[in-house]
Design brief:
The structure holds 2 protein chains of 2 kinds.
Chain A lengths: L1 H16 L1 H21 L7 E7 L4 H11 L4 E6 L3 H9 L5 E5 L20 E4 L4 H22 L20 H31 L2 H6 L5 H31 L7 H25 L3 H18 L11 H7 L4 H12 L9 H21 L8
Parallel strand pairs in A: 1-2, 1-3
Antiparallel strand pairs in A: 3-4
Chain B lengths: L4 E12 L2 E12 L3 E5 L6 H9 L6 E6 L2 E2 L4 H5 L2 E4 L11 H9 L8 H7 L15 H11 L7 E5 L7 H16 L3 E6 L2 H7 L2 E6 L2 E6 L1 H6 L5 E7 L5 H5 L4 E6 L5 E6 L4 H12 L4 E8 L2 H9 L6
Parallel strand pairs in B: 3-8, 3-9, 6-7, 7-8
Antiparallel strand pairs in B: 1-2, 1-4, 4-5, 9-10, 11-13, 11-14, 12-13
The chains are: A mainly alpha, B alpha/beta.
Chain lengths: 370, 309
């Protein structure tokens, strides 16, 4: 025990003093989060809208305000001409241009006679199919409602839209859990395999074999150091995304840690496997990247795996990072408990056993030719 | 008092596929001696050493340390020996003192790291990382790190390879100190001067076999022709004429112009005969040096090739 403790202290010292490695393991995922946090996908809705109010009456201002209140719109009130609005849409500066005509004042003027409907003009980019249906629908509904109100027709049928407190998962929250899984994976596969193969290359492990030290003790200390670092890494990531970008964790925080550490153990074993297979530390770095990079893109770090083609989805669910991310998101984003992630935990457990056995079979302490 | 055997090697062989690295060698090493294994690169020195240390398994044969079979008693033996590998780096980001403390923790008891560092003149470097040491300092540290458990037997694999003469002499002193403090030292080297100066006994190894084993003096004396004259002349002469003189064994022209090496029988008659020959031919001897043969000659004698090639 004393030996393990001494080795652990030495390992922690070495890790903390290795500024460069520390930077890559701790700050790199943070940079990712910062970048995605600054993009801030939700800011001001998804459609840029210009409104030109030519009437400037009480009614037109109410109308403008109502448009402004539509959540999906990022509205700017313009004082230009209809033609300029048209040009803004045409050039792609804004996605929608709404012109409230001067004639709208006739609606509230009892003297004026309205023989044909006054038209609100909406310029939009016909290619923008996905958003158009939403925007056109919203405006259409708005106009219908306005018609009914203005004609003072009795409301006979109304939609009782009962909001169900639907929690809106922010993209930063999705990304933060993705980063958590990604950094656990990268630090394991890449960090561990390079560190170990370098120690073997430099005969540091062989030198240990010349002493009565039990290699089991060395490995235990090595893994403990790694787990401590992993907890620090998880904490930094979670606090940064929470305090800087207000990403929430809806589930049990300890369960999030538990699942992340479970994943850590798998990737740690895979790191031993890579170090075992690769002859040099350079080869280890290459092989580790080769394993980690496709997983990063396929297992749903940046986007949900449900966006992948069906066949691909079936395949990627067998990668270790996929169930790890699923479990992390179910707990962290959906606020679910351990019962809801049983399937993922089973997948992860199988991976742990497989990775552990592979590590036992492949890892070598020396470069002996045998 | 009978010599106490510390290490015993019996018919040790090691094969890597087709390659026979060690070919049925046997020898014994006694307490408090400095034992050298001398041979060119690839002779099988390191492999033999690592099998005795328990780092590699023999293909056949047995090795004993303190009378115990190496491969059944690995840990017990490792507590009492110190091993310097041919090339080791130490942990990055730990200073010398910290590294020695970590290694010390592997043993039931250990020496004071600062005392060890002082012994090899590295006390001021206690807080330095290995990366910042010079080649000689690094090697001194590697050697002294084997003493952390106050071992009875120290294995040094090419401790001075790649060092400048000053640093080598420095290490020889350290190794000499080890013997004085009662340790047995086994070292490998391909420097014959090192073996000659340091070692009580030398095993000459070539192509996996031990071709000779004795004290350096006796190995040299066993040569039929233990002397050679190095002469510098102002003119050339047919080598065959001199080599036929009485008492002369062989004449070789050296790389430098006008310098010759004349091997002599031990009665030195060949020297006076050569001088007479040069006088007769009106060749002036500008320089003459008489040398005794060294381990290099022993090596050539036993293997038919030069050590440095």
């Amino acid at each position: 025990m004393k030996v393990i403790f001494k080795l652990l202290i030495a390992n922690v010292k070495m890790t903390v003093r290795n500024k460069q490695a520390l930077f890559w393991s701790m700050l790199f995922p943070l940079l990712f989060i910062a970048v995605f946090g600054l993009f801030n996908m939700e800011k001001g809705g998804f459609a840029k809208v210009e409104v030109l109010d030519e009437a400037k009456t009480q009614l037109s201002e109410t109308l403008t305000q109502a448009i402004k209140n539509i959540p999906a719109f990022n509205v700017e009130i313009k004082t230009s001409t209809p033609d300029e609005i048209y040009q803004d849409v045409k050039s792609g500066q804004v996605e929608y241009g709404i012109i409230i005509p001067k004639e709208i004042e006739n609606l509230t003027n009892p003297q004026s006679k309205i023989d044909q409907p006054i038209s609100l003009t909406l310029y939009y980019d016909a290619k923008n199919v996905q958003n158009n249906s939403v925007v056109l629908g919203t405006l259409q509904q708005f106009v219908t409602q306005a018609n009914l109100n203005l004609s003072q027709a009795p409301t006979l049928l109304m939609l009782n839209a009962a909001p169900v407190e639907a929690k809106k998962i922010k993209y930063i929250e999705f990304i933060a859990t993705g980063m958590l899984g990604m950094s656990v994976m990268q630090y394991g596969i890449i960090g561990i395999s390079i560190a170990l193969s370098r120690q073997r290359e430099d005969n540091i492990l062989k030198k240990l074999l010349t002493t009565p030290l039990l290699l089991r003790d060395y490995i235990v200390a090595f893994i403990l150091n790694y787990l401590i670092l992993s907890v620090v890494q998880i904490t930094i990531l979670l606090s940064a995304s929470h305090f800087l970008f207000n990403a929430q964790i809806y589930g049990n925080l300890f369960l999030v840690y538990g699942v992340a550490i479970f994943g850590t153990l798998i990737f740690l074993c895979l790191g031993f496997v890579v170090a075992g297979i690769a002859k040099t530390s350079q080869a280890a770095a290459g092989l580790a990247q080769l394993i980690a990079t496709p997983m990063m893109f396929l297992s749903g770090v940046f986007f949900s795996t449900s966006l992948l083609p069906n066949v691909a989805q079936k395949i990627v669910q067998f990668l270790p990072l996929t169930p790890l991310l699923e479990a992390l998101r179910k707990v962290s984003l959906d606020g679910q408990g351990i019962a809801a992630i049983k399937t993922q935990l089973v997948y992860l457990f199988i991976w742990l056993v497989v990775a552990f056995l592979l590590a036992l079979a492949t890892f070598r302490f020396t470069e002996n030719k045998e | 008092m009978a010599k106490q055997g510390v290490i015993k090697v019996e018919n040790l062989s090691k094969r890597f596929g087709e390659l026979v690295a060690v070919d049925s060698i046997s020898f014994e090493i006694y307490e408090r001696e400095i034992f050298g294994i001398l041979g060119p690169n690839g002779a099988g020195k390191t492999t033999a050493l690592e099998i005795i240390e328990g780092l590699q398994k023999p293909t056949s044969g047995k090795t004993f340390v303190f009378g115990k079979e190496t491969h059944n008693n690995g840990r017990a033996i490792k507590e009492k020996i110190g091993i310097q590998l041919q090339s080791t780096s130490f942990f990055d980001f730990l200073n010398l003192k910290e590294i020695l403390e970590v290694y010390g923790s592997f043993y039931p008891s250990h020496q004071d790291p600062m005392q060890l560092l002082e012994m090899v003149g590295l006390k001021e470097k206690a807080k330095t990382v290995v990366k910042k040491l010079s080649g000689g300092q690094k090697q001194r540290f590697a050697v002294v790190s084997t003493l952390i458990n106050n071992p009875q037997v120290v294995f040094l694999d090419e401790p001075t390879t790649g060092l400048d003469p000053q640093a080598r002499r420095n290490l020889w002193e350290i190794i000499e100190t080890m013997r004085q403090s009662g340790k047995t030292v086994i070292l490998t080297t391909h420097y014959m001067d090192e073996a000659q100066i340091l070692c009580d006994r030398v095993a000459i190894m070539d192509e996996g076999k031990i071709v000779a084993l004795d004290t350096p003096e006796r190995l040299i004396r066993s040569l039929k022709y233990p002397y050679r004259a190095l002469v510098k002349t102002n003119g050339r002469f047919p080598l065959s004429e001199v080599s036929e003189l009485k008492g002369v064994v062989e004449v070789r022209e050296r790389a430098e112009e006008g310098r010759y090496e004349i091997r002599l029988e031990d009665n030195l008659e060949g020297l006076s005969e050569s001088r007479k020959y040069f006088a007769k031919k009106n060749i002036k001897i500008k320089d003459l040096k008489l040398e005794t043969a060294d381990l290099e000659d022993v090596f050539i004698h036993f293997t038919g090739k030069r050590l440095r090639d």
